[in-house]
User: Fold SpoVT-AbrB domain-containing protein from Stagnimonas aquatica.
Amino acid sequence: MLKTISKIGNSQGLIFDSALLDLAGLRVGDQVNITVSPGGSMVITPIRKAPPLAAVQATIAKTLDDYQDTLKKLA
Assistant:
């Protein structure tokens, strides 16, 4: 996708249309990390919050319960 750097106030920036944001799973206000590789390539990586500990524990408990027989055979 070809984009043009635009003047925004006293700065420059890229404007991402809603289709591009949807593809990347981003919304206005999300934080991203930008890294610059040798040669000038930029990589924009969304910063995702980790799920709450309770949700992780619930998923582990459900998995252990669902696969209890299989896990016993593997032990």
In short: Residues 53-66 form the longest helix (14 residues).
